[in-house]
Design goal:
The chain is of the alpha+beta class. It has helices at about 5-10, 60-75, and strands at about 20, 25-30, 35-45, 80-85, 100-105. The longest helix has 17 residues, at about 60-75. The termini are far apart. The structure holds adenosine monophosphate.
């Protein structure tokens, strides 16, 4: 998608602080962190929202969680704890329409979210 900022990051066309990339899933630091650790995990392939997932994407979405686990361990927050969030559409506050998982950690996170 030509106008998708996360597609551009996945293509290396704009810079990001990349932590992990296996060609299917990419992890990079959020540009506007909401916690001491705030990482975004995306599929390389453009999928706009969770609503657009298909059964064939099951392994890809599973890989997002496995990469989240790996990044959390590498950043030293696996034991203290972390939260994964995928916002879908307006009421959830989705601003970038390329599926992304937030990994948040490094402080006590409030619940429920705002
Ligand atoms: P969401 O509201 O779930 O769509 O989250 C979008 C996230 O993308 C926000 O936390 C932004 O700070 C983050 N973001 C937007 N542009 C960039 C960028 N160029 N690099 C890293 N993170 C970004």
């Amino acid at each position: 998608m030509d106008d998708c900022i996360f597609c551009k990051i996945a293509a290396g066309a704009i810079p990001a602080s990349i932590l992990y990339d296996d060609g299917a899933v990419l992890a990079f630091r959020d540009i506007n962190p909401e916690a001491p650790v705030h990482v975004l995990l995306i599929p390389h392939r453009h999928i706009a929202t969770l609503n657009d997932l298909e059964a064939a994407d099951a392994a890809l979405i599973g890989q997002l969680f496995l990469v989240a686990r790996r990044v959390a361990a590498e950043l030293g927050v696996a034991e203290s704890g972390y939260r994964t969030v995928i916002n879908c559409n307006r009421d959830a506050g989705q601003l970038v329409f390329h599926v992304h998982m937030h990994l948040l950690a490094g402080r006590e996170l409030g619940w429920p979210p705002g």
